[in-house]
Specification:
500 residues; Aspartate Aminotransferase, domain 2; seven-stranded mixed sheet; five-stranded antiparallel sheet; 12 strands; 12% strand; globular; disordered N terminus; Aluminum resistance protein; PyrdxlP-dep_Trfase_major
């Protein structure tokens, strides 16, 4: 016989979610939208009060109709109750879903315009071999990317092996011995710490390769400006930290495995603009991973010099098998092209024997898949908040990336939740993930990654380091319906008491 689930507290009822909504923290974007961005309108990321009121009303009406407590339900019945609970939440979120779909239409229109402008044809999907000279498909795709995101030039290649590799190429392209990299967003995520020469001693001691060829070994200094207590960028601190040899000001848009909030495009742009006014010789560089198509603009449209990211995240639309992009000012992108290949070759070489169809079609579909993932993130945040878990972002608050963090009180609940995501995955559903060591990370990591593309985090994944506080990071999802199925399984496993 299956174990009974743990007792669910009273705040699991839908009436109390309406109370939760009354206490949502005001967004930092409120101030940003009031200040505005030079040359750009003052659109805010916060939901309108009318939309919030409609969602609150829907939640209250449904709660009056039915209470969805789960006490003393066996496994099969519990899953049915969880699905019904999630369905009620989705009904309430419908006004927000409409808003997400409106943003999807905005991005799709821009992509269509770029496709038409550059006359994309079937011939552009053809493979290339050897040196890859005069690859029309490659050249046109890079022109499309640049047109959509306001860059002078783009480098879009499957020769980038990961997002970290893409960022590394960009940084080495812009920095020289004696230069300084100033990071405006505090400590970067684990794998980039190795690139910068900031890897913890524990990693270096057990992995000598972690000390090979990092920035500081090449005589490039790295300094960090911590974020403020509220998680926002410390503009005063950044301005004070500038030195004559500061050459790149770097921003990490997404949170990584940190508790801090992800950063909005307009917030980053305000700092970048202020620094460029004082020091026009500094490159501003944004790690854009997980953020593409989540807001209405990308950083390069608001004056940032360079953005970079992974094609197996948002812009690949779930179809790209590998790769990355670097986009922005022509000089910066050309430097990156010569770093990726060799001086003198630049972006003129680089064959693609598999053809370009997946990258074109994936970019075209990306706004829709990102919208599906955003809907799933909102549902996850609302459901877990109702269970009493801390979520970040909170439900119904603005988002700038696809990562939804959930904090668990103990390791077991986090492990069972992530195992539930894996169990509902289309690939390797029979595999049970357990915490283990991973290159570049100081703590054991547990990861649900039953994806079609290995490491493809636009597909639904969940992971996190096993250290207090126990935070799981859920991201992606090709379809909203799959996210709902996985959330049902994850909640069911999480709420089940482990066998003693």
């Amino acid at each position: 016989m299956q174990r009974m689930i743990q007792t669910i507290p009273d705040f699991f009822y839908l009436e109390d979610i309406t109370e939760l909504m009354k206490h949502l923290a005001p967004s930092r974007m409120t101030q940003v939208s009031q200040e505005g961005i030079e040359g750009i309108g003052q659109e805010g990321a916060r939901l309108s009060q009318a939309t919030l009121d409609e969602i609150r009303s829907r939640l209250f009406r449904q709660a009056k109709a039915r209470r969805l407590g789960f006490q003393a339900l066996y496994t099969n019945t519990r899953r049915a109750a969880i699905r019904q609970f999630l369905t009620h939440l989705e009904d309430a979120l419908y006004p927000l879903y409409r808003s997400i779909e409106s943003l999807e239409e905005h991005h799709t229109e821009r992509i269509l315009s770029a496709f038409r402008r550059h006359r994309v044809m079937n011939i552009h999907f053809n493979p290339s071999t050897g040196y890859g000279y005069h690859d029309l498909g490659r050249e046109t795709l890079e022109n499309v990317y640049a047109a959509v995101w306001g860059g002078e030039m783009a480098l879009v290649r499957q020769h980038f092996v990961s997002g970290t590799h893409t960022l590394t190429v960009g940084l080495f392209a812009l920095l020289r011995p004696g230069d300084e990299l100033l990071i405006a967003t505090g400590m970067p995520y684990d794998t980039l710490q190795t690139v910068l020469g900031l890897a913890p001693a524990k990693i270096v001691a057990t992995n000598r390769e972690a000390a090979y060829g990092h920035l500081q070994e090449w005589g490039i200094s790295v300094r960090l400006v911590p974020l403020k207590e509220d998680g926002s960028i410390d503009l005063t601190g950044v301005m004070a930290a500038l030195r004559p040899n500061t050459r790149v000001l770097y921003f990490q848009r997404s949170r990584g495995y940190e508790a801090r909030p992800s950063l909005f495009v307009r917030e980053i742009a305000l700092v970048a603009q202020a620094v460029k006014k004082k020091r026009g010789d500094i490159w501003t560089f944004v790690d854009n991973c997980y953020g593409e198509f989540v807001e209405d603009v990308e950083p390069t449209e608001l004056g940032v010099d360079v953005i970079a990211g992974s094609l197996i995240k948002n812009p690949g639309g779930g179809l790209a098998k590998s790769g990355g992009y670097i986009l922005g000012k022509k000089e910066a992108v050309e430097r990156a092209a010569h770093r990726l290949s060799a001086p003198g070759l630049g972006g003129e070489a680089g064959a693609h024997p598999g053809g370009w169809l997946d990258l074109y079609q994936g970019f075209f579909l990306a706004p829709h898949v990102v919208a599906e993932a955003k809907k799933g993130a909102e549902l996850t945040a609302l459901a877990l908040s109702a269970l009493g878990y801390h979520t970040d972002p909170l439900p119904l608050t603005p988002r700038t990336d696809l990562i939804q963090a959930v904090e668990f009180q103990e390791a077991g609940a986090m492990i069972r939740f992530i195992q539930g995501i894996q169990k509902a995955s289309p690939i390797d559903a029979h595999v049970t993930p357990v915490p283990g060591e991973m290159p570049g990370y100081t703590d054991p990591v547990i990861m649900a990654a039953g994806t079609f593309v290995q490491g493809g985090s636009l597909e639904l994944t969940a992971d996190g380091p096993l250290r207090p506080p126990y935070r799981a990071y859920i991201q992606g999802g090709l379809t909203r319906s799959h996210i709902k199925q996985a959330l049902t399984e994850a909640l069911s496993m999480m709420l089940d008491e482990p066998d003693s």
